[in-house]
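Bit of a strange request maybe. I'm writing a small parser for structure token strings and I need a real example to test against, not something I typed by hand. Could someone generate the tokens for this chain?
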Amino acid sequence: MKMTTFAKNMKMRKLIYVFVAFLLISCGRKDDPTAGLKIFKYNEAAGILTLDPIYAKDQPHIWACNQLFNSLVAFDDEMNIVPSVAKSWEVSEDGKTYTFILRDDVFFHADSCFGGKGRRVVAGDVEYSFNRLVDSKLSSPGVWIFSPVKQDEDGYAFRAVNDSVFQIELKDCFPAFLGILSMTYLSVVPREAVEYYGDDFGRHPVGTGPFKFQYWKEGVRLVFRKNPGYFEVANGKRLPHIDAVSISFLIDKQVAFMEFVQGKTDFMSGVDARYKDELLTRDGRLRGKYKDDFYLIREPYLNTEYLSFYVDTQEEKDDKERSVALRKAVNYSIDREKMLRYLRNGVGTPGNGGIIPKGLPGYDSLGTSGYHFDQRKAFEIVEKYSLGGEEIKLYATKEYMDLAKFVQSSVNDIGVICDVEEMMPAAMREKRAKCSLPFFRSSWVADYPDAENYLSLFTTGNFAPAGPNYTHYSNAEFDRLYELAVSTNDLKDRALIYHKMDSLMMSESPVVVLFYDEVLRFVNKKVSNFNGNPINLLNLKTLEIN
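Reply from user aminoacidic:
Good idea to test on real output. This should exercise your parser:
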């Protein structure tokens, strides 16, 4: 039997690793300082440029900074907002003023900037950290967070009332703001460390988190050590449970995959197309030959993958009913279950509901807002509105051409002619912003875990290029409900409004929801209590290594 190229590469790499391991063991020191320590190891192929939280704009940097810093509040695994540096908070009746009471047992890491000791966190540290985020000279990509905050000639309306009380005043009621305050951008940092290390603060961070900075050789390894004075406790035991975190930076994903398979790293997020069939069955389960070495965690991820129509067209104005009918026919033509099974090994939840993804209040778990595959209905619509032979063109980047061609085939099967054009990502972003693409692949990953984040994409006030409404969908009732939702503090009441908005928007079909994404986490079996949530945050403070 011939070996596949993948199998040959695996065998050759395994031989190389065995040889290297032999040399290391032969030449290694017996007094290994890490012997007996519980160290969690993972690889970050994308690399890390800084550990300053005001620049933590993507997953690699958020994951690393999350081990070192804390914000006022946090999200638990069920997406409930829980205390962190703040032990409690109150929101005024009008929903505009937030008052936080800080814990008195949160300390910054022991560091040279404090003479080798730590220091208790006070409300002035929160004020300093927030002012640093909005400092125009530092150009943080997270400054948008404070757009709802009231401003005057003295700056933004947040302040330390005293050492224990911190207050923020908003322009208008905006219930999602509390969740936004959990973001890594808003981590609490000490003035002393920023001034002591200057421009090198991002390479020598000092925070309050469960781990503290230890060592960094750029492009090779980053190490965090346990913070023995961390303030959180679980089951009567002070967190964290492990001694250290070690991050490697192997760029070659196949080499990184080999490291994980051989137990040299403890965790791998996602699955590369080159070895997804090696790891997963057609329906997304872990293949049997790996079950003794590691396990698979599948969780909802706050990412909706969809196709967008630009609806602000002359055709829409001339005959809106026919335009909506065409979009509905396209929606009914796609077998989303089949698409996920054959193109993504079953990873994801079929997009039979609205734009709100699984894992958020307002998500349409019954699929009543959206569309299920129904070719008969699609044919009926095509016939009723004489859509046979109608031409549409779908634009997508190379990475998504398999999905685009699946959609193309599905739409062609109902008599509508669908062409596909591949575009470079930069060109597609530019044309999308200029509203010059009639039908294009889209996705939205939540900036913060509230359905408002998704529904705001379809408000009239957010028309592109000034905002993210690239479809130019506009509905007065939708806009009215949006204003009602963002002035409603009760989450259950707000979720009901969100659901109405989602249903209303989908009834006019400016989008074709394909699927709601999932996070795949492959974890070494020696690791337990490995938690995650729909925002795909890496939380290592409760993790244990057996």
